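Thread title: Can someone regenerate the structure for this chain?

I was given the following input by a collaborator and told the matching C-alpha cells would be attached. They weren't. Posting the sequence so someone can regenerate them.
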Amino acid sequence: MSTIGPTPAGAPQVRSLNCPNCGATLTLRSFGQAVTIVCDSCHSILDAQDPAAKVLQTFEAAAGKDRPLIPLGARGTIRGALYEVIGFERRTIQVEGVDYSWHEYVLFNPYKGFRYLTEYDGHWNDTSTLRSLPVVGAGGRVTYLGETYRHFQTAQAATSFVLGEFPWQVRVGEAAVVSDYISPPRVISREGSGQEVTWSLGEYLSGHDVWKAFKLPGHPPAPIGVYENQPSALKAQVKKIWTMSAGFLVALIALGALFYATARNEQVFERAYSFDTATKGEASFVTDMFELKGRASDVQLMTHAHVDNNWIYLNYALINQDTGQAFDFGREVSYYHGYDQDGSWSEGTQKDTVTIPSVPPGRYYLRVEPESDYRRGTIYYTIGIRRDVPQLAFFGLGALALLIPAVLLTWKSINFEHLRWAESSYAPGESMAPVLAAPLRQFFKQDDQ
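Best answer:
Regenerated them for you:
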C-alpha cells in the first residue's frame, strides 16, 4: 500500500504484522504512530508498539448496524489535506436506562498528524485536539481564542466497539467523563479519565460534505433532530428580516405621517333628522347638496342616533349630482342595556362610522331611507360627512403585515434552540429562560455571547 501523498526518501512506509491471536495479516497505516491496533478478524486489541503485537484485550464484536459508514482505508480531503481513515470506535452513554451511541473515526496524514470525525444520528463534526487550554469561567462557560462556549452536557462515555488503529491505548469498556461546551457551529469537549484530561475542538459538518470529501457512493444518512452544535440557518435570516422590517416600518411611519399632514380632513356636511316610527308609507328623503373638493379620496360618513333599547337601520346612497354615480350601502345603529342576575349589561353603540374609498370630487347628495320597529316613538339622529380623512388603521395593518413574517421566523428560530437544548443537561424541567433568551440577544450581535 502506498503512503498518503508524496513519499520523500527515507519517509516511513506502511508495514504489516500478524495477529498473534488468529494469525490474520494486519496493516499499520499510521507509520508507527499507532499505540493500539484492532484485528479485523478476531477483534483482538493489540499493542502496535510491541514487535510481537502483544494482545492487550479480546472482546466479543458487536458492530451490527454500526459498521463504519466510511470504510477503513478510505481517503478524503479535510481542510485542504488528504487524510486516511485508520480507526473507528463506537462510544455509548446511558441516560435514564437508555443507551445513546455515537461514532468516532480516526483520520491520519503523515505530515498533519491525527484528526477525527464524529457522527451521531446523521450529524457530523470535524474534530482535532487542542494544543492550548481554554479558559474555564463561571456559570458553565469556557473561553477559547476569544469565543465563549456554554456548557451543554456532561456524561460518562464508554467505548463499546473498536476497529483499526488508535494513537492511544484503546480498551472496550473503558469509560471517561465527557463535558461538551457549545458555540454553534463549534463544540469544545473535555474528556477526563483519572488524572488525564484531553480538550478537543469540533466544527459541524453536513453529511453531504463528508460524502463529497471521501467520494462515497450513495447518500449520507439524513440527520435526525437538532444536534448540540448544529448551526441554525434561521439565525442569520432572523437578523436580516428584522433589519428589513425595521426599514420598511420607518418608511411606513414616514408615509403615514405624510398622509396625515397632507389630508384635508374636511367637514363637508352635517344635519340632524328625526324618524317617526309610526309613519306609514315611504320614509326616504334626499339631503341638501354638498361639494367634495380636491382629488379623489375617501369619504367618512358618521351616524349618531339617539336609540335607547332600540335600533334604526339607514339605507344610504351617496349620489353624484352631475354623473349620477351612486355609492349604495346600509348601516344599523342599535343600543340595548339592562340588568340581570349578573348585574348591569349593555350591547351596541349609538354611533356608527363607515368609510367609502376613492370617491371622485364633485357635487353630491344623500338619499336616506330609515327603518325601525313600528310605533317605537321618534328616533332622532345626526348625519355627518368628512372628506379626505387619514385612515391610519391601514398603516397599522401594513405594519402588522410586515411584523408577522419576522415574528414567525423568530418563533421558529427559538423553537430550533428549544429542540437543541432539550437534549442537554438543561432540558425542560429546569430553567430554560436564559437558554431561550440567548438567541434573541444574539440576533442583533455579530458574535455569540
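The longest helix spans residues 233-262.
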